[in-house]
Specification:
Shape: elongated
Number of strands: 17
Bound molecules: adenosine monophosphate
CATH superfamily of the largest domain: Bira Bifunctional Protein, Domain 2
Distance between the termini: 52 Å
Helix content: 40-55%
CATH topology of the largest domain: BirA Bifunctional Protein, domain 2
Strand order of the largest sheet: 1-5-6-12-11-10-7-9-8
CATH architecture of the largest domain: 2-Layer Sandwich
């Protein structure tokens, strides 16, 4: 018989890893709560049509697609935003704006597995819908910073750009959407030469090419200088100029919020998802050269899905990568916080008594594992030691007659007889 392994790109989380994952998810939930985002749980399987509508060729080609038994074309969600947009276009259609919604869960992409890249990706995703004001964009960036801080991550750098600058120029050059999308994809992958070849072949003006070549070089942490240079470069391209003004306003609000973020503006920055219309950003730490999270503004998606025109901005954080970064920076939380107790009956006749005492301790909030293998006392104690448990409760007939047990402190290697109803107190102190 063959040896079964996880499917390529999928991972198991053993108890310690799962505990870390859950603690990071907990932080993501806490940040959501502090910013007023309500949780929504949407299906992992959605219609292919919905997920493909505006995902972009790159994401579409990496989706897990299949037919369900009813012959429907469905797929595993490659991201959350399409599901949220579906909800806002339907069930939440008539609810007052703005919405603040978040989800935590897995998305699936047929990416090439490597360090920090998997096919089941755990994300926390936040969407702020119903505002086109720069303060909304700023909120999503600041919220992301709050999560990074909650995870104890240092030296986070935010890379910020604006899709409207490039698209504004392309629009004015009458470049078809399809070609625009393809060029943005290439830029996202930093394949600038290919992007420029495609541009040159598409018949845009020499001026446009010249400006774009300048733009893709324009980046830096002197953010207001960079945006001002951007503004003077795109002068004459109305929409692009508007976009760079919008970027300036967002950055000013972030700066004035005094949250002290490390930001680098990158004028040639593009992101893989096609639906972005405005500010886009990513967050990185120097220890890893992969993004921990990314997002941006997408003002047209809800309308595209048949809803009221609703401007929106959102972000997805890669929890797997956040954990990796926490590992690199050595800020992972201690998985084990509570005291643990092994309850060991001296004789199998006392199994019932052992379970009774275990239950008493659990009711008092103590973590208990009962000896279920029937090992001799020495073996059971050795095992409890090996697994770094804090105490053993030895349930013996003689002590029980007095309503007591032997409580052994496995760390101090000392033991005492303790009344059953006093064990929890001793263990906790
Ligand atoms: P996106 O939905 O593409 O904006 O991605 C948001 C975040 O999810 C990224 O910044 C990464 O942290 C994470 N992410 C995306 N793809 C993967 C992957 N294949 N493996 C692990 N994390 C990923």
């Amino acid at each position: 018989m063959s040896v079964f392994r996880t499917v390529r790109g999928m991972r198991d989380f053993l108890p310690q890893e799962a505990a870390i994952l859950r603690s990071v998810e907990e932080k993501a939930r806490r940040v959501a709560e502090l910013y007023g985002y309500g949780e929504i749980v949407t299906p992992i399987v959605e219609s292919y049509e919905l997920l493909a509508a505006k995902a972009g060729e790159e994401v579409k080609s990496r989706m897990f697609v299949f037919k369900d038994l009813g012959g429907r074309d469905v797929a595993l969600r490659p991201e959350f935003t399409a599901s949220v947009a579906r909800l806002v276009a339907t069930t939440l259609r008539n609810q007052p704006r703005p919405f603040r919604l978040f989800s935590v869960g897995s998305v699936y992409r047929y990416d090439e597995p490597q360090k920090g890249r998997h096919r089941e990706i755990r994300q926390s995703n936040y969407e702020l819908m119903g505002s086109e004001a720069p303060i909304a964009d700023a909120e999503i960036v600041l919220l992301t910073n709050s999560l990074m801080q909650a995870c104890g991550l240092r030296n986070c750098v935010f890379k910020v750009g604006h899709v409207g600058v490039l698209r504004g120029i392309f629009d004015e050059e009458n470049l078809e959407d399809k070609v625009q999308d393809a060029i943005m994809q290439l830029m996202d992958k930093k394949q600038y030469d290919d992007a420029f070849t495609m541009l040159e072949n598409s018949g845009v003006s020499a001026k446009c090419i010249k400006i774009l070549k300048e733009l893709v070089k324009l980046k830096g942490q002197e953010i207001f200088d960079v945006v001002k240079k951007m503004q003077s470069l795109v002068e004459g391209y109305g929409k692009a100029a508007e976009a760079s003004k919008n970027l300036f306003q967002i950055l000013r609000i972030i700066y004035e919020s005094a949250c002290d973020l490390d930001i680098s503006v990158d004028a040639g920055f593009a992101r893989g998802l096609e639906y972005y219309t405005g500010m886009i950003f990513e967050v990185n730490v120097p220890d890893l050269d992969i993004a921990l999270g990314g997002g941006g503004r997408y003002d047209k998606l809800i309308k595209l899905f048949g809803g009221e025109s609703t401007p929106a901005v959102g972000v997805a954080h890669g929890l797997d990568r956040i954990i990796l970064a926490m590992q690199e920076q050595k800020v992972l939380p201690d998985a084990k916080l509570e005291k643990s107790v092994a309850v060991i009956p001296v004789d199998e006749k006392l199994n019932g008594e052992a379970l009774k005492i275990a239950q008493l301790l659990r009711d008092a909030g103590v973590r208990v594992e009962v000896e279920v293998v029937g090992r001799k006392m020495a073996k059971a104690l050795e095992d409890a030691n090996r697994r770094a448990m804090d105490f053993a409760v030895i349930v013996g007939e003689r002590e029980l007659k007095e309503g007591a047990v032997v409580l052994r402190d496995l760390k101090k290697r000392a033991q005492q007889t303790v009344k059953v109803n006093a064990i929890a107190g001793v263990v906790r102190n």
